[in-house]
Amino acid sequence: MMTDPIADMLARIRNANKALQDTVAMPTSRAKVEIARLLKEEGYIRDFHVERQKDAVAAAKGKDRELGFETLVIELKYGRNRERVISGLKRVSKPGRRIYARKDRLPRVLGGMGVAIMSTSSGLMTSRSAEEKGVGGEVVCFVW
């Protein structure tokens, strides 16, 4: 049983980034897909997609049957000489200690160089979009 799937996602991305891997796969959820969408919009990852898992036993018998779970595959982004685009990822609000930010006290990451991902009543968004919309919420993670 996993107590914090978002922290697991961030750890997988962090480890794959350190190992200079091109892709990283993980179990999917709507929150993880939204975080991946925000990372792509901000230019931290190249792309992402959700794959349905195939049944290997059925495929060996010539049948094409899909299993009930999906996998989120994230393609990491690197610079020209394999410099990492993502310098760091940090989970802020954890299951043991939730961190919230009001609309007038939204977090800034590295003086605006990074991005804070927040869960608001309007869905997951960056702190910049939350500031534009005038909403606060739970601070999910920092990316820089």
Question: Explain this structure to me?
Answer:
The chain is of the alpha+beta class and about 140 residues long. The protein has four helices and eight strands. The longest helix is centred in the first third of the chain and has 14 residues, at about 5-20. The model has no long low-confidence stretch (mean pLDDT about 90).
List keywords for this structure.
144 residues, alpha+beta, 5-stranded antiparallel β-sheet, 3-stranded antiparallel β-sheet, 8 strands
Low-confidence stretches: none
**Order of helices and strands, N to C?**
HEHEHEEEEEHE
Described by the principal axes of the CA atoms, the overall outline is globular
Task: Calculate the terminal CA-CA distance, rounded to whole Å.
Answer: 29 Å
Mean of pLDDT = 92
Q: Please describe the biggest sheet, giving its number of strands, its sense, and whether it closes into a barrel.
A: 5 strands, antiparallel
Number of strands: 8
- Specify Rg, calculated over alpha carbons: 17 Å
Helix content: 25-40%
Q: What percentage of the residues does DSSP assign to strands (E)?
A: 25-35%
Q: Output the number of helix runs.
A: 4
The structural class is alpha+beta
